[in-house]
Amino acid sequence: MEIKQQFFKQPVRLLAPMEGLTDPLMRQILTQIASDLGRPYDWSVSEFIRVTQTVLPVHVFYKYVPELHHDAKTASGTPIHIQLLGSEAQLMAENAAYACELGAPAIDINFGCPAKTVNNHRGGSVLLDEPEVMYEIISAVRRAVPTHIPVSAKIRLGYTDTSRMDDIRGAISDSGADWLTIHARTKTQGYKPPAYWDKIKAFNKLSIPVIANGEIWNAEQSKHCMVQSGTTHLMLGRGAVTRPDLIAQIDHNNQQNLGSNATLLWQDLITHQIKFLEGQAKNDVVLVGRYKQWLGMLTKGYSEAQILWENVKREKNKATIIAALQSSTQS
Ligand SMILES: Cc1cc2nc3c(=O)[nH]c(=O)nc-3n(C[C@H](O)[C@H](O)[C@H](O)COP(=O)(O)O)c2cc1C
Fold first, then answer.
1. Are 56 and 92 in contact (CB under 8 A)?
2. Percent of the residues in the chain that have a pLDDT greater than 90, as a whole number
3. Does residue 156 have a pLDDT over 90?
4. Which of 5, 104, 246, 271 is the most buried (most CB within 10 A)?
């Protein structure tokens, strides 16, 4: 299988799929910030779309990936790949083919989700214990989508432990996947530090690009991750939500042609937070809840966020929160 070389001319930087977190609104904001700082994400991946019994109706694809209306790109031009999750190879293949008809620039397959409801239906990380099923799914999807459209897989190191890593690598190797993203923890290790970046090295024997993911919160950790994993390709998850300038910090630090200022100051982040609060959601209660989730994460990246958090954590009114945000510029 030809490697889709044009995607990996340089080290890639990707914004991770995170269900309920990097939804279309958050993707819009984070990809805009990255572009404004001079280091756009190469692409992001949608939250997983669960495939169970049918070829999903068009509105489901548009709900998860409204970017499909705009050439599958965010307003700042970042492509959005579509992630599917399921265990039935033929059905996954049919949904992938349909996603491509709707304009998906690439299909990613989720083998990392730890959620019980998903795993109980043989989806997500539980399939890491069944590498032959992984192989069936990836190869069926690969056969079903046009050859110029990449098919990738996103995995963890294993389900309960890393004992099946060689089998997983074998399954990926034969499947026709164009690249592989590895969240460097098992399902059992959840989301807790550390991430075992060194374990990624075993996958570099594959003839396809490998993207390292997990526990990158700052530029220094990105360096350690690249050294320990033996790959320069990175996917950023929670760290990118906590410090939206993380991508620029990383490449600034690695002296890739970025301007001198790769830092996003709190005062500049305020405008983006207001845009988030003015974005589309089912209703204001949902939007305010989601904003507080983000603000809670920002407290780890910005001391100013801590002060604002204390002021608004019980506030339900969107306009009041926006006013508090605006006045936090002046402090
Ligand atoms: C809230 C949340 C939702 C997630 N949803 C998805 C998902 O839909 N698809 C997926 O492949 N990974 C998902 N992940 C995993 C992330 O993509 C990433 O692999 C993980 O967070 C490790 O990276 P980090 O330590 O940089 O956050 C999710 C993670 C979080 C925290």
1. no
2. 90
3. yes
4. 246
- Write down the pLDDT at residue 331: 53
Q: pTM of the prediction?
A: 0.96
| pLDDT one-digit tens code per residue, 270-289 | 999 999 999 988 899 999 99
**Last residue within a domain, chosen from 220, 253, 286:** 253
Angle at 251 between CA 246 and CA 256, to 5 degrees: 160
Give the total number of structural domains in the chain: 2
Last residue of a domain, one of 253, 284, 309: 253
Residues 209 and 299 in one domain: no
Q: Which residues contact 46 (CB under 8 A, 6 or more apart)?
A: 17, 64, 65, 80, 81, 82, 83
- Is residue 294 situated within a structural domain? yes
Q: What are phi and psi of 154, to 5 degrees?
A: -120, 125
Residue 22: exposure state from Cβ atoms within 10 A (0-12, 13-18, ≥19) = buried
Whether residues 74 and 191 fall in one domain: yes
Protein residue with least CA distance to atom 29, ligand 1: 18
- Residue 79 is classified by DSSP as B
Please tell me which residue in 89, 113, 241, 308 is annotated as part of the active site.
113
Domain that holds residue 204: 5-253
Ligand 1 neighbours, Cβ below 6 Å, are 16-21, 47-48, 83, 110, 112-113, 154, 183, 191, 213-216, 236-239
Instruction: Please choose from 18, 51, 85 the residue to mutate so as to test ligand 1's pocket, defined by most ligand atoms within 8 A of CB.
Output: 18
Band of the pLDDT at 168, cuts 50, 70, 90? very high
| Same domain as 281, residue 238 | no
